[in-house]
C-alpha cells in the first residue's frame, strides 16, 4: 500500500466520525429534549392486596356458605389433593394433612415444617380465615410457601370449606 491509500483510509475514518457527531449535534438542535426537574421515577405503591384482604373479610360468610355443596367441594378438592391429604389418618404430602383443619390453629400439624409466615400467623382456621386464604393464599398470609393461585369462584370456595369441615372428628355447625 502506498501513502496515498493510507491517507484515503484515514480521511474516510475521520469523515465518518465527523458525520456521526455532526448528525448528533444537528439532531439535538432540531429536537429539543426537556430533561425532568427531578431525576428518578415515581413509584406508586399498589395497595390492592390490603384492600383485597379487607374486602374478603367483609364478605357475608353465611351467604357464601349457603352457595356451597359438600359433593361439589369433594370434586373441587381434587385440585388440592395433589398436595394435601384430607383422609383421617392421612399423612402430609407437599402440604400438611387437612383432616380436622377447620377451627384448629394455623400451623398446628406438629410433623409438618411450616413457613415462618404461617407459624407466626397465630389465628385459627375459621370460616372467614379459610375463605380469605382460599381466595389467594399468597395475598392472605404474606410469605407463606403455598404456591396455589387460589379459588376465585365463590361456590367452589364455599364448597371446599364445607368439605373440609365435614372431614373432621367433630364438624362444626354453620354460623
Describe the structure concisely.
This protein has a domain at 48-166: Orthogonal Bundle (Cytochrome Bc1 Complex, Chain D, domain 2). 47% of the residues lie in helices and 0% in strands. Helix 3 (61-67) packs across helix 8 (154-166) and helix 4 packs across helix 8.
Counting helices, strands and paired strands, the structural category is: mainly alpha
Strand content: under 5%
Which CATH C-level class of the domain at 48-166 is it?
Mainly Alpha
The rounded Rg comes to 31 Å
CATH architecture of the domain at 48-166: Orthogonal Bundle
Largest sheet, strands/sense/barrel: none
Task: Give the termini separation.
Answer: 97 Å
Q: Estimate percent helicity.
A: 40-55%
Low-pLDDT stretches are: none
Q: SSE string, helix = H, strand = E? A: HHHHHHHH
Number of strands: 0
Relevant CATH superfamily of the domain at 48-166: Cytochrome c-like domain
CATH topology of the domain at 48-166: Cytochrome Bc1 Complex, Chain D, domain 2
Principal-axes shape call? elongated
pLDDT averaged residue by residue: 87
> Helical segment tally?
8
Explain what the structure shows.
The structure is a single chain. 47% of the residues lie in helices and 0% in strands. It is an all-alpha fold. The termini are far apart. The mean pLDDT is 87.
Amino acid at each position: 500500500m502506498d501513502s496515498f491509500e493510507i491517507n484515503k483510509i484515514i480521511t474516510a475514518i475521520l469523515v465518518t466520525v465527523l458525520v456521526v457527531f455532526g448528525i448528533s449535534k444537528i439532531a439535538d438542535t432540531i429536537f429539543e429534549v426537556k430533561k425532568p426537574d427531578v431525576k428518578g421515577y415515581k413509584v406508586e405503591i399498589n395497595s390492592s392486596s390490603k384492600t383485597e384482604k379487607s374486602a374478603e373479610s367483609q364478605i357475608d360468610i353465611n351467604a357464601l356458605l349457603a352457595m356451597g355443596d359438600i359433593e361439589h367441594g369433594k370434586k373441587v378438592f381434587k385440585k388440592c389433593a395433589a398436595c394435601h391429604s384430607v383422609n383421617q389418618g392421612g399423612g402430609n404430602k407437599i402440604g400438611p394433612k387437612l383432616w380436622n383443619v377447620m377451627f384448629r390453629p394455623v400451623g398446628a400439624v406438629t410433623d409438618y415444617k411450616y413457613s415462618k409466615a404461617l407459624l407466626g400467623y397465630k389465628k385459627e382456621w375459621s370460616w372467614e380465615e379459610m375463605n380469605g386464604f382460599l381466595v389467594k393464599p399468597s395475598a392472605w398470609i404474606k410469605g407463606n410457601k403455598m404456591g396455589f393461585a387460589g379459588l376465585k369462584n365463590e361456590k367452589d370456595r364455599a364448597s371446599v370449606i364445607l368439605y373440609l369441615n365435614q372431614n373432621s372428628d367433630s364438624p362444626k355447625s354453620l354460623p
